[in-house]
Amino acid sequence: MVEGIEFNETDLRDHDGIAMIINKNNKYLLMKHNKLNTWTIPVGKVEYGESKEECLRKEAYEELNINLVNYDLVSLETRKYNRLNKVIKVRSFLYNIINYKGNLINKEPHKHDEIRWFSIREIRELDQISDATKDFLRYNNFINNPIND
Fold it and tell me: Which domain does 33 fall in, by range?
């Protein structure tokens, strides 16, 4: 359990989430998540009655000001978290964003201190990364394999 975090109602029940891999010139977009004090690829919770793809497109626009053109579902991970002495199951759907339109900006600075492009090496050197970011590294086999960047 993470100490000192204020969880909202949706954090405390089983839910689905989306995560996005956004690549530009072999650099990947990460956001500094204020609530969890960690770097993460863009993520979001699927609302009741919303499809994963609706959530994906909504989060891309709400957080980053982009409209998705092409994307692929590349991975599904299920995790259990202990939050306030409750076990919460989260299914995370990882999407590779192939193409988008719009000028990418941080539209939610109250949620994310900053957004920045990182090489794989730089991501691996970060002290705190989200589980979704670890999924991305694992999916791309970047965790233990040497890379040249």
Answer: 13-139
pLDDT tens per residue, range 13-30: 778 999 999 999 999 999
CA 22-23-27 angle, to 5 degrees, is: 125
Tokens of 5: 């975090």
Q: What is the pTM of this model?
A: 0.85
Separation in Å, CA 148 to CA 8, 25, 26, 59: 41, 14, 11, 32
Characterise 85 by phi-psi region: left (phi > 0), alpha (psi -120 to 50), beta (else): left
- 39 half-sphere exposure, CB direction, 13 A CA radius: 19
| Contact between residue 43 and residue 108 where contact means Cβ atoms under 8 Å apart | no
Q: With the CA atoms of 46, 79, 40 and 104 taken in that order, what torsion angle do they form, in degrees rounded to the nearest 10?
A: -30
In this structure, is residue 147 part of a structural domain?
A: no
Q: What is the CATH number of the domain that holds 105?
A: 3.90.79.10
Q: How many domains does the chain have?
A: 1
Interval 39-63: pLDDT, tens:
999 999 999 899 999 999 999 999 9
- Contact indicator for 60, 66 with CB cutoff of 8 Å: yes
User: Is there a domain that residue 125 lies in?
Assistant: yes
